Structures are given as structure tokens and as C-alpha cells.
């Protein structure tokens, strides 16, 4: 299906952004590939849309082809799962719980499509898709062929991947996972908030269905489960990633925090780096839940979510994001980086 001058805002969780010159909706892998080839042959820009949960689209819209991937497919063979890129991620997770399989239960309620999960290496509550993805099937625009990339070739890292690093090359078609039959139990709990909820130590397992329900409850309490009636959920989820600091950066940050008699969160990260909390930084820099008096504000439930209160423009949202980024830099010397993909705009 093809539309001209098509509104994009309704296709995003922020409900922001101008129209696309052309919108194509693809229901099969062949339709996806045909649309990509047509755009590439015409030399026009291509924007791939899934659930629109991780996008900030400029008010001017998109001057090329927006490709909405609406493919379907949920195939379970024992503990091996294959998802079509257009499958609704939250629904797919719920089906794995119904099947009694662990591996993605702590990623419950995350909006968006399955095809977006490897791009961002989606993660929450101590779990990442990189831990269970075995292969990603994608259309390689450079080679003009369908390729299957094993986990090791995807270059997964914190909220990053090969697909995010080279966004003009790959269009994800299918994602394959290796789940676990743990006799109705979850994977080991890695996140302190979840462990506290269940009264267990980290690395312990809990009931799989209860883990799924608990995460949905925790996310809903932070406005991170979509609800059209609740403007706190009109967001792109966490707007900033948690900063990962090298030893020199961390020492400088720690000195500023100590000077203000603050104890900053710190978590070990690879290569001697230290991860700290973006939410903590935002709050301690003076931006509390609900901050803002305009049409774009921080969520009243979570400082990491920038929200559209119903009448915002993308520029309203970006003005707030820049104010927060600059305020955190001034207070702590740490540069916040946006997590959503920017289309036609930048911070």
C-alpha cells in the first residue's frame, strides 16, 4: 500500500513529526525488499518504520520514502524462536511466557517491533536481546541480497549494534532467538529493583509468569507502557542512555558529585569503564519528574522520558532535551546522548 504526503506522527509513540513524501506499507519480506530496492534505484532517502517507539521525526517531515514494516510471523520450534520484523514486540514476549520459555521476560511491555530490537540491542531490567539472539536475517542494501548474521557478527554492545552503526546498509527482516525451558522459572534476576520486588538475591530465579507481570507493573508505574489516554506514555521511552565513562571522565565526575556531597550510582562496564545513571544525573541537575511548563515536559512518572502533552511540536521536545543535556553537563561535566533515532533533526 502506498500513500503520498502521509502523516508520520500517528505512526510514532511521541505523536510528533511532519509527513513523508511517500509512505509504503509492506506485509511480506518480498514487499520490504521491493520497496527498498525501488527507493535505492530512485536515489531517494529511505526511512524504515516499525512501531515508531524509538524515533524523533522533525516537524518538516521526511522528504523520501517511509517504509512501514508490517510483516507477521511467530514461529516456535522447541526453544528456538523466529520473529518477523513487523511483529509487535510486547505481544511476542507475552507469547513466549504462555509457552513457558524464559529469556525475554524482563523485556516485557517494551513498545515497538521485533525488527527494531537488534538495532538498539534493546534491554531493560538486567536483560538484553543480545543475550538470546542467535541470528538476524536482513536485506543488505549494499550487496543487494538477503544475509543471515550470527550473533557475533552483530557487534552488540550497550544500546548499540552493527545495524545502528551503519543504518543505511541493513533492513532487518527476521530475528531468531534461543530461549530456555527453565521449568516455569525465569532467567536469573540481574536487576536490583526486580530482586527487591521479589525479596530474592540477584542471580536467583523467580516464577516466570510473576516475573513478566512484575516488569509490566514496574514499567507502567514509570509511564513506560503505552496508554493513549495517558500523556506520560506519549514518549520515546528513555530519551538518554546511561553514560559510560572512561577512568578519567569518571574521576572528574566523581569529584564534582563528592563536592556536592552526593553519592552517584556506579556500575562496572567493559574495558575499565564505569556506567552511571542518566535518570540520577537529570534529577540531581534540577530536572525533577514533570519538569517543564510547555507542551513538552518530563514525564510525571520518570525523569528519563520526555513527553508530548498533546500539543507539542518536535522542536518543543528538542528544546527541552537540549535544556536537560546542557544542565547535566554544567552540573556534572557529563554529556548525555540521546537514545532515540533522530530523523531530520539533531540535538
From TrEMBL:
Q: Which top EC class is named for this enzyme in its record?
A: oxidoreductase
Please name the InterPro entries in this protein's record: FAD-bd_PCMH, FAD-bd_PCMH-like_sf, FAD-bd_PCMH_sub1, FAD-bd_PCMH_sub2, MurB, MurB_C, MurB_C_sf, Oxid_FAD_bind_N
Q: Does the keyword tRNA-binding apply?
A: no
EC number(s) given by UniProt:
1.3.1.98
Reactions catalysed: UDP-N-acetyl-alpha-D-muramate + NADP(+) = UDP-N-acetyl-3-O-(1-carboxyvinyl)-alpha-D-glucosamine + NADPH + H(+)
Q: Which GO terms describe its molecular function?
A: UDP-N-acetylmuramate dehydrogenase activity
Cofactor(s) the protein needs: FAD
Family as reported in the entry's similarity comment: Belongs to the MurB family.
**Protein name per Swiss-Prot or TrEMBL:** UDP-N-acetylenolpyruvoylglucosamine reductase
This protein's species is Kitasatospora misakiensis
Amino acid at each position: 500500500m502506498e500513500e503520498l504526503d502521509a502523516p508520520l506522527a500517528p505512526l510514532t509513540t511521541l505523536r510528533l513529526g511532519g509527513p513523508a513524501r511517500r509512505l509504503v506499507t509492506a506485509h511480506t519480506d518480498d514487499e520490504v525488499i521491493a520497496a527498498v530496492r525501488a527507493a535505492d534505484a530512485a536515489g531517494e532517502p529511505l526511512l524504515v518504520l516499525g512501531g515508531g517507539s524509538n524515533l524523533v521525526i522533525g516537524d518538516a517531515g521526511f522528504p523520501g520514502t517511509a517504509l512501514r514494516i508490517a510483516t507477521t510471523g511467530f514461529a516456535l520450534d522447541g526453544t528456538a524462536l523466529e520473529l518477523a520484523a513487523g511483529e509487535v514486540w510486547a505481544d511476542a514476549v507475552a507469547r513466549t511466557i504462555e509457552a513457558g520459555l524464559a529469556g525475554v521476560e524482563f523485556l516485557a511491555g517494551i513498545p515497538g517491533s521485533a525488527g527494531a530490537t537488534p538495532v538498539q540491542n534493546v534491554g531493560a531490567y538486567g536483560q538484553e536481546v543480545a543475550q538470546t539472539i542467535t541470528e538476524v536475517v536482513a536485506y543488505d542494501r549494499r550487496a543487494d541480497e538477503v544475509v543471515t548474521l550470527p550473533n557475533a557478527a552483530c557487534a552488540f554492545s550497550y544500546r548499540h549494534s552493527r545495524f545502528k552503526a551503519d543504518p543505511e546498509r541493513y533492513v532487518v527482516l527476521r530475528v531468531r532467538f534461543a530461549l530456555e525451558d527453565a521449568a516455569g522459572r525465569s532467567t536469573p534476576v540481574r536487576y536490583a529493583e526486580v530482586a527487591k520486588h521479589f525479596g530474592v538475591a540477584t542471580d536467583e530465579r523467580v516464577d516466570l509468569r510473576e516475573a513478566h507481570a512484575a516488569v509490566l507493573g514496574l514499567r507502567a508505574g514509570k509511564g513506560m507502557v503505552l496508554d493513549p489516554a495517558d500523556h506520560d506514555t506519549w514518549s520515546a521511552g528513555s530519551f538518554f542512555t546511561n553514560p559510560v565513562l572512561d577512568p578519567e571522565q569518571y574521576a572528574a565526575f566523581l569529584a564534582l558529585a563528592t563536592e556536592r556531597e552526593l553519592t552517584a550510582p556506579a556500575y562496572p562496564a567493559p574495558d575499565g569503564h564505569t556506567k552511571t545513571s542518566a535518570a540520577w544525573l537529570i534529577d540531581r541537575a534540577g530536572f525533577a519528574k514533570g519538569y517543564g511548563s510547555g507542551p513538552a515536559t518530563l514525564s510525571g512518572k520518570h525523569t528519563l522520558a520526555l513527553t508530548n502533552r498533546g500539543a507539542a511540536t518536535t522542536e518543543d521536545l528538542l528544546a527541552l532535551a537540549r535544556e536537560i543535556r546542557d544542565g547535566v553537563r554544567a552540573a556534572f561535566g557529563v554529556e548525555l546522548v540521546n537514545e532515540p533515532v533522530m530523523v531530520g533533526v539533531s540535538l
